[in-house]
Amino acid sequence: MTVDTERYLDFVHGVTSEPSKDFAQLLARMTELESVTDADLPHLLTAALGLTAEAGEFTEVVKKIILQGKPYNEDNVFHMKRELGDICWYLAQACKALDTDFNEVLIEIVTVAICGSDFHGFTGKTKSNKTLFGEPGNFYIYLSYGIYNCINIVTGKRNWANGVLLRSIAIKDEDERIASGPGLLAKRFGLNRNHDNLPISIENGFWIAKGANSKQMLDIVQTTRIGISQAKDLPWRWYLQNSRSISKRAKGDKTPSKNECWYPSSFEGS
Q: Is residue 109 part of a domain?
């Protein structure tokens, strides 16, 4: 069999992008990106090339140990550790380029791994969850079981799926259970999917402020989450122990009497 190498080279050249084969086009593309985005291109390119190269060097050591008879000894283990250190160096360059850090990257990975599909950012940004990746301080509102509106506040920073679910709120001079669950809370304040991505501000009629008698709130209970199917043992739920407006208390935590409980001075959450 004879391979027409000239024809193959012409084919490769034809399907290769212009910036990949023409320096002027490469500079033009870099200039275009810098003018329309805030991308840190030097760090990003350094990270991409460095991670690939150093990962290859780590792989080369492993290959020689497993496939070519090189001994698995202290020297070669040390060599692999040094290569991991080099990988971390370029990982730091990538974090710099993406305006993040090691901790944030690890939290994202661990959250996805542990929570699975119960984590709303599990599949990445989609049409239905894009608000969660958006501007911190905005509402992220979704339907639970296709019935109940659940009110979340986007936290952290843009392009990272961070949010806090509001589970209950105590309201002055109203029934203590009127907003004692995500669905009831949304119903009481008339919030629904139409308010998704709305900034939480006085101008929009919804805001968060420190309560006048917040010193009376006392202990905050940290407990496991409820209403989910995965990672039920994670202690990612908090509530005021002396509030009677909790949707569900932790096991063994009794509801305080009306004489012992905390009451809001106005609209104050629990």
A: no
